[in-house]
Write a structure and sequence with these properties.
The complex is a heterodimer of chains A (468) and B (302). Chain A is α+β, with helices and mostly antiparallel strands. Helix content of chain A is 19%, strand content 46%. Chain A has helices at residues 2-62, 65-78, 125-131, 213-219, and strands at 97-109, 136-139, 142-149, 154-162, 168-177, 184-192, 224-233, 239-247, 264-275, 279-290, 295-300, 306-326, 336-354, 364-384, 387-402, 418-429, 432-442, 449-461. Chain A has a 16-stranded antiparallel β-barrel with strand order 1-3-4-5-6-7-8-9-10-12-13-14-15-16-17-18. Chain A is elongated, with a radius of gyration of 36 Å. With 302 residues, chain B is of the alpha/beta class. Chain B folds into two domains: 21-185, 3-Layer(aba) Sandwich (Rossmann fold), CATH 3.40.50.1980; 192-301, Nitrogenase molybdenum iron protein domain (Rossmann fold, 3-Layer(aba) Sandwich). Helices cover 43% and strands 12% of the residues of chain B. Chain B has a four-stranded parallel sheet with strand order 2-1-3-4, with helices on one face. A four-stranded parallel sheet of chain B has the order 6-5-7-8. The chains are: A alpha+beta (468), B alpha/beta (302). At the A-B interface, helix 1, helix 2, strand 7, strand 8 and strand 9 of A face helix 3, helix 4, helix 5, helix 7 and strand 6 of B.
């Protein structure tokens, strides 16, 4: 019994002593634990803060409505206070706007494009290669554009065109004045001439896969020039613009030349305005004068021999253009319509040298006079948001060609090239487009080529502002 | 005979290409709200031309010939900024040769510069839709922003047209007082709207939501400027069953179809807000704009 008591007493004593001894022994350890807990707390606080930060970021990016609702009141308090400070500029803040246009195409042609020509319209080999259709998959023109203001007085821009054959050409590289006053703007460098309507528009803004036949036959697709351009905007409520250009004129219908002075000059006038809130329009007249020297092209002569001919002289191209746009209340987002047409007439005179390589009858030089014309008319209808459909009809008039002494040697085919095109495109956003185009092409005499194109066009980078 | 023909044709020409007759300050307003504000502050000393109207999607405007002609003769631009006009204004600035309206000049006025921007994206990627790097540009749906912009615009008018500085100052004082009273009144009226859950068609109303305490629980566009898929819409309906909203709101320029689809399915009213001056019969000026906005929202609550 007493043993029992003793043991009990001892065990009670032990039981009581144990925590005491533990207390005594571990007071240093406890401080350590406290320190650990404190550290854990701190690290969790940091983590929680990081999580909170991420949550806030998630709220603003995803714009999650629910989370935002919670913040609404908080925001309401901070509402009408001073604007926030702008972030300090980084070293690349002055980098120019860069935009990239990516485009690819699939073409299906019922006729072999080998030997393609626009019958009756002489195009130099390089130009002909550019406008000739391609079968199968290919990369279309990739455009790289860089644009920025130089200083308060000038802006500058560059546009590279990267071709599917891995060559690169400089479509545009220009500087221009900003706010010169009196409605004047001066541009210098290489630029798309302001003649006509379509000429100044970059290929990715065209409504069809290809340029109209008239543009291909008379301008090789599009005319750019190295030179100086002056434009004057009249101080009137109706848009009236006059433009003049002087330049090298190295691209077709001109040729490269090594001479002082100008090889090309252009004059144009455009007018435009609104009719009510639903309609807007622009119309114009242009003249492009070039003086090609030794413009060379391949032809088949009256004796069915392949010959090379050469022209030197003057080329004058007249362009009448007009565009009409309709959108209910001026809002083109849901539905709109655009009617566009141009008439081009080219008159050339000078000397033509027949068979420069002596492949047929031998070289002979004589007077050359030609007057040819062409037109296109197209309508594009956006029938639903994101969807557009368009029709284009076009025709060239082979006109009159006088080869002078070479009249017996060269052919004057009685053929007016024509083409009918239909397209439908889907535009998931402002920056992407997928297009299907069906066309019946009668550019070549006696050949009807049925064409199917499937094309994508996407634009990346800086949000470009587009011309009217 | 020839002389008469010449006279007639000259007369006709002058009729077609009339020179702007007004001698005051020519202001080209990119959006109608700034045109209305410039008119409030400038009175008969200014002549305002609005580049766009309330039924036009402000993101999708073209550099039309008429706008080129107006920009050429403008003494001042009154625009939102924050890249709202990025698709067309640069053309006007570059091609009209007008030194007065170039960025950095007093004649270049950007309203977004004077208010606190909301929804500034932390990630700039077009995969997020048509986002604006400077934040949501639709600042005009909060009348407190209008007051802030009015302060700055009045100063700017006085700077450009110093001869009439006192005139602009006085008009601004009057306007500011009237506007302050009007805001108090609208806030009183709109008190029941606080905390009301809404659906928006396009994310064009963060400033309005912020002002009135509306809770945006969903948007019909999954991303700004992006068309909703049917899967997205059915998901949206499911979400609204769990968390019902009281109404779906859209701007005057928005197509009615999407919000009416939701009205039918989710049984909530669609509200066609004026969004800017001219967006409804009642929104004839800035006061009418908010009278009508508050009234339409309250009407949908009943």
């Amino acid at each position: 019994m007493s043993f029992k008591r003793k043991t009990l007493a001892a065990s009670i004593a032990l039981a009581l002593a144990a925590p005491l001894s533990a207390h005594a022994a571990d007071s240093a350890e406890l401080a350590q634990i406290r320190e650990q807990i404190k550290q854990m707390k701190e690290s969790y606080e940091v983590r929680i803060q990081a999580l909170e930060k991420r949550l806030q970021q998630a709220e603003s990016t995803a714009g999650n409505a629910l989370e935002k609702a919670g913040k609404a009141e908080e925001k309401a308090v901070q509402a009408a206070v001073a604007p926030q400070a702008t972030p300090p500029a980084a070293i690349n803040a002055f980098n120019p706007g860069i935009s990239l246009i990516l485009s690819g195409i699939y073409g299906n042609h019922s006729k072999d494009p080998a030997g393609y020509q626009i019958t009756g319209f002489h195009l130099p080999g390089g130009v002909l290669a550019d406008v000739s259709p391609q079968r199968g998959f290919s990369l279309a023109e990739t455009e790289l554009g860089i644009y920025a203001n130089v200083d308060p007085y000038f802006a500058g821009g560059l546009n590279f065109s990267i071709h599917p054959d891995n060559t690169v050409s400089t479509e545009e590289a220009f500087i221009q004045t900003l706010g010169l006053s009196h409605g004047l703007t001066v541009k210098a460098g290489r630029y798309f001439s302001g003649i006509g309507y379509l000429n100044e528009q970059h290929a990715h803004t065209w409504d069809f896969v290809d340029a109209p036949l008239a543009y291909q036959a008379f301008l090789g697709g599009q005319f750019n020039n190295d030179g100086v351009q002056v434009r004057w905007l009249a101080p009137t409520d109706t848009f009236v613009e006059l433009g003049a250009e002087l330049g090298r004129g190295a691209s077709f219908p001109g040729t490269g030349r090594d001479k002082n002075g100008a090889g090309a000059s252009a004059l144009y006038a455009h007018a435009g305005g609104d009719v009510g809130t639903n309609n807007s329009w622009r119309a114009g007249m242009s003249l492009l004068a070039t003086s090609p020297q030794d413009r060379i092209w391949n032809d088949v002569d009256a004796f069915n021999a392949g010959v090379t001919n050469r022209f030197s002289g003057n080329s004058k191209l007249w362009v009448a253009d007009g565009v009409w746009k309709w959108a209910p209340n001026g809002n083109p987002v849901y539905t709109n319509f655009k009617l566009q047409g141009e008439y081009l007439r080219r008159v050339e005179d000078g000397n033509l040298t027949y068979d420069v390589n002596v492949a047929s009858l031998g070289t002979s030089t004589g007077n050359y006079n030609a007057a040819q014309s062409g037109w296109y008319l197209q309508g594009i209808y956006q029938f639903a948001p994101y969807w557009r459909a368009g029709l284009r009809t076009e025709r060239l008039d082979h006109g009159n060609i006088d080869y002078g002494v070479n009249n017996a040697n060269l052919l004057r085919p009685d053929h007016d090239p024509s083409r009918q095109s239909f397209m439908v495109d889907y535009n998931p956003s402002e920056f992407s487009r997928i297009r299907l185009q069906l066309a019946q092409d009668k550019s070549r005499q006696g050949v009807t080529d049925n064409q199917i194109f499937l094309q994508y066009q996407m634009s990346l980078g800086a949000h470009g502002a587009h011309k009217y | 005979m020839f002389e008469r023909i010449a006279k007639i044709s000259l007369g006709a020409l002058l009729c077609v290409f009339t020179l702007p007759a007004f001698a005051g300050l020519n202001i080209l307003a990119c959006e109608p709200e700034w045109g209305a504000l410039a008119q409030e502050l400038g009175g008969d000393k200014v002549s305002v031309y609005n580049a766009t109207n309330a039924l036009q999607d402000p993101h999708r405007v073209e550099a039309k010939p008429s706008l080129m002609a107006r920009a050429r003769g403008a003494d001042m631009l009154a625009c939102t900024g924050a890249e709202l006009e990025v698709g067309w204004l640069p053309i006007l600035l570059r091609q009209t040769g007008n030194p007065k309206i170039q960025p950095g000049q007093p004649g270049y006025f950007e309203a977004a510069h004077y208010v606190r921007m909301l929804e500034i994206p932390t990630r700039l990627d077009r995969a997020e839709g048509d986002v604006h790097p400077g934040g949501n540009p639709h600042i005009q749906t909060d009348p407190r922003n209008i007051a802030l912009v009015a302060d700055a615009l009045a100063k700017r008018l006085a700077e450009i047209d110093a001869a009439n500085a006192e005139y602009y100052r006085q008009r601004h004082v009057q306007f500011a007082a009237r506007w302050k009273m009007a805001i108090t009144n609208w806030e009183k009226l709109a008190a029941p709207l606080k905390g009301i859950p809404i659906v928006v068609q396009h994310k064009g109303f963060p400033y309005l939501e912020n002002w009135l305490g509306l809770k945006q629980v969903a948007a019909l566009e999954p991303k700004p400027g992006v068309e909703p898929s049917s899967a997205y819409l059915s998901g949206l309906l499911g979400q609204l069953q769990r968390q019902p909203a009281k109404m779906v709101i859209r701007a005057a320029y928005n197509d009615a179809r999407a919000s009416e689809w939701l009205t039918e399915r989710a049984k909530i009213p669609a509200v066609d807000l004026p969004f800017t001056v001219g967006g409804s019969e009642q929104a004839k000026d800035l006061f009418g704009l908010f009278d009508d906005t508050v009234q339409k929202l309250l009407g949908a609550l009943k």
